[in-house]
């Protein structure tokens, strides 16, 4: 399963979206539409750390990194890139 599909599936299941994961647009604004609040963001970050073996620093928890499934996917990709390759 592609990472973006995995992220969408998690978002739909965890935040009880009324659409199938494959219909969740990558640019759907999860924050502006009230899908994710501050507690939801912490839950999402914890899942990302566990699922993708990341160590997300508090400074990286900026709204723009978690606004949409596409933003989350890009964030994970950049966090997963070795420091010398950025």
Describe the structure using short key phrases.
globular; single chain; 86 residues; mainly alpha
Overall pLDDT level: 91
Helical content, roughly? Answer: 40-55%
User: What fraction of the residues are assigned to beta strands by DSSP?
Assistant: under 5%
Q: What kind of sheet is the major sheet? A: none
Order of helices and strands: HHH
Q: Compute the number of helices.
A: 3
Care to count the β-strands? 0
Oligomer: single chain
Global Rg: 12 Å
Low-confidence stretches: none
Q: Give the N-to-C terminal Cα separation.
A: 25 Å
**Anisotropy-based shape:** globular
What class, by secondary structure content? Answer: mainly alpha
Describe the secondary-structure layout.
Elements: H1 3-14, H2 38-52, H3 69-79
Helix pairs in contact: 1-3
Question: What's the quick description here?
Answer:
The chain is mostly helical and 86 residues long. It has helices at 3-14, 38-52, 69-79. It is globular.
Descriptive report:
The chain is an all-alpha fold. 44% of the residues lie in helices and 0% in strands. It has 3 helices and no strands. α1 crosses α3 (69-79).
């Amino acid at each position: 399963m592609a990472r973006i599909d995995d992220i969408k599936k998690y978002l739909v299941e965890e935040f009880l979206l009324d659409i199938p994961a494959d219909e969740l647009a990558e640019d759907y604004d999860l924050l502006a539409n009230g899908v994710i609040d501050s507690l939801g963001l912490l839950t999402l970050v914890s899942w990302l750390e566990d699922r993708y073996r990341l160590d997300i620093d508090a400074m990286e928890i900026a709204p723009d990194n978690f606004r949409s499934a596409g933003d989350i996917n890009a964030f994970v990709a950049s966090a997963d890139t070795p420091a010398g390759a950025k």
